[in-house]
Amino acid sequence: MNWIFLGIVLAAFAVAGWRQFAHVSVAGAPSPMEVLSSSMISSAGGAVELAIGLVGVMALFLGLMKVAEEGGLLTVIARLIRPLMTRLFREVPPEHPAMGAMILNLSANALGLGNAATPFGIRAMQELDRLNPRPGTATNSMALFLAINTSSVTLLPTAVIALRAAAGSSDPAGILPTTLFASICGTIAAVLAALWLARFFPVGAPDAAAAGIDRPWIRDGAQREALPADPGAYPPWASVLAIGGLVALIPLTIVWGKTLSPWIVPGLMAGFLLFGALRGVRVYEAFVEGAKEGFRVAVRIIPYLVAILVAVGMLRASGALDATVAALGHYTAKVGLPPEALPMALLRSLSGSGAYGVMASIINDPAIGPDSYTGYLVSTLQGSSETTFYVLAVYFGAVQVRRVRHALAAALVADLVAVIAAVVICRWLFA
User: Fold this and answer.
1) Is residue 158 a contact partner of residue 54, using CB atoms and an 8 Å limit?
2) pTM summary value
3) pLDDT tens digits for 308-346?
4) 8 A C-beta contact, residue 290 and residue 65
5) What are phi and psi of 404, to 5 degrees?
6) Contact 173, 265 (CB under 8 A)
7) Chain center to CA of 258
8) Which of 265, 276, 300, 282 is nearest to 61 (CA)?
9) Residue 330's closest CA among 321, 339, 340, 319?
């Protein structure tokens, strides 16, 4: 992200400087550099206003998620997907701690818990590394887990819904069917790509340099932190029924989506609170605790929003973005990817905060808005995939894996498929 941020700023400065030298002064008209300066100030102020507007809705959704989490919804999902996981990861013993950590990670991702999923993911990689005969080299299970993680099925993209609500959307949860469709397509592509590409990326000879890697998670095995108790699995028929129901939601939401969408947010509020109450959760206290975290999250993202919205504002004000979009947008627009959404599609795999900021600038643009086709598309892109390079850096870095083999290729295939699926479903519903 450092180079992306610096590159955007320098490109904007260079283009504005070149236009400044060629500028012919007109009475009352600002020069290119004056436009650039005013854009920087207004973008910084707009970023803070956006984050403040986001505090309430972020607190609301994270409060509801806290109630669901304490009620055991994470455990329910984990038990449902366990039979599928044991078939995908045949190299991992069913009762190995790695299996439980992976299930918890993917379940947390499905619920849109964001950072809450990361500790489970890192723990899963450390447990998978216990089964790794080649330190420093990714196993097939590691590559498959990372590919699935970067495109995990998303049932509830809470952060994106919150941002759409803050941007004044009349249908903030309208992206649920599009996000579900795109993330399912991306996950299927991730699994198929990881399984197919494994044959072209052999493990290879042992790396002599990697043999000396200090792996404290292996050395201090007796002191490993305890995972939550393994919830086991539901009967296979229950898992098949749940997965079938999930897939069946796609055509149902496509056909009835516009009718059902006004019910989604109130239904989530009532449903999650009722679920928590029936499971013995003190729903008010749990909601307040989650809302506190929502407030902290909204405050934490202010610097990231300021950085990326100022950079994007500079790029637009300088004319550099218009020139790039004009060169490529003509071709992408023919397949349903508008020029305004092109930066989002390119940035999503590179930087989560960057893509989040670009999405925020697009849906808060009065000329576009959150409820336009482009607004729905960029929201779906944000909600249906992860930041591939960040995930690979964090998870592989946690176990000092240097040779990622086919993990990156499989994850990028999944990202591409998710973008295509998002375009297809958004054109079907909103174009």
Assistant:
1) no
2) 0.69
3) 678 777 877 888 777 777 777 778 888 888 888 887 787
4) yes
5) -85, -5
6) yes
7) 24
8) 265
9) 339
